[in-house]
Amino acid sequence: MLLRRMFAAAALVAAGFSLPAAAQTQDCPRGTLDARFCDRDGDLVADAPTNARELVDPATLVFAYTPVEDPAVYRRVWQEFLDHLARETGKRVQFFAVQSNAAQIEAMRAGRLHVAGFNTGSNPLAVNCAGFVPFAMMAARDGRFGYEMEIIVQADGPLQRLEDLRGRLVAFTSQTSNSGFKAPSALLASQFNLVADRDFRTAFSGRHDNSILGVANRDYDAAAIANSVMTRMVARNAVDPARIRTIYRSASFPTTGYGHAHNLNPQLAERIRGAFFNFNWEGTGLQREFASAQPPQEVFIPITYRQHWEVVRQIDAAMDVSYTCR
């Protein structure tokens, strides 16, 4: 019950934004989408508005990458892609360094964010509450994609099994994170009868890199993290892998979903999608940063929210997560 209240609170915190004054409830199919959206084609994401006056065609496109690590690092990593996006769309492009998943969702919901990469766990909230339309994901050239949730501990510490977490301090990232909170919480409660703040103490680090460094530096006994983040940190010598040991690794989840706001001018939205799929990664900051992942992330591939986020929605449903927006 405690976990369910935490999940419900997380959904409300992330989605508890006021509707813009112009937003009107429409009489249309929408499933779990917020009342201001329609889903006439049944793909689970918001349709573009049918009223041309509700479409937006901004002079400057604002882009935000999921706030899992240092924004200053990722501003440089994304620069060549953002230059490419500007050329393909004929728009100025601005990088928006968000500090939390909730702030990123709020920015798109309020119309201040046009193109974004939302992390795995916050995709459903972004889709249902902010009108996010995911269409791409990073993958290897042969189409392989995904990451795993790992629970890590100090390499020289006494913890060997998940059962050993009882009474320990376990770090999560944020309540909207799939690998940083939702998936490990569901696992620990359902398979090991370990409930947060009853059987172990919890801390929220805010980001995966903070959790990883916190374990390495003995601030936390254990942490639930996305191993793709840890792989990149090891590749750039941000953490010593010899100080960390994994005691659990999950099945694979989809990675960050990239997409645009539902109410962009359709021609502009099409140019944005094209920019992702025709971007040449060779020699760019994206290639240097993400090619070290396992599997390597070296191209953008098409995805659908209905198919690729099904497992995440199932975890949310099992934990009674609501996508209700206020």
Q: What would you say about this model in short?
A:
This protein has 326 residues and is an alpha/beta fold.
Structure description:
The protein is α/β, with parallel strands linked by helices and 326 residues long. It is 35% helix and 19% strand. The chain starts with a helix and ends in an 8-residue tail after the last helix.
The number of helical runs is 12
Instruction: Give helix and strand order, one letter per element, not per position.
Output: HEHHEHEHEEEHEHEHEEHHEHH
Terminal CA distance reads 22 Å
CA-based gyration radius: 19 Å
Determine the oligomeric state from the structure.
single chain
Count of all domains: 2
Quantity of strands, as a count: 11
So, the CATH homologous superfamily of the largest domain?
Answer: Periplasmic binding protein-like II
CATH C-level class of the largest domain is: Alpha Beta
SS-based class:
alpha/beta
Strand order of the largest sheet: 2-1-3-10-4-11
Signal peptide: 1-23
Organism: Roseococcus suduntuyensis
Keywords: Signal
InterPro entries: PhnD (IPR005770)
Q: What are the main properties of this structure?
A:
single chain; about 325 residues; alpha/beta; D-Maltodextrin-Binding Protein, domain 2; six-stranded mixed beta sheet; 12 helices; globular; disordered N terminus; Phosphonate transport system substrate-binding protein
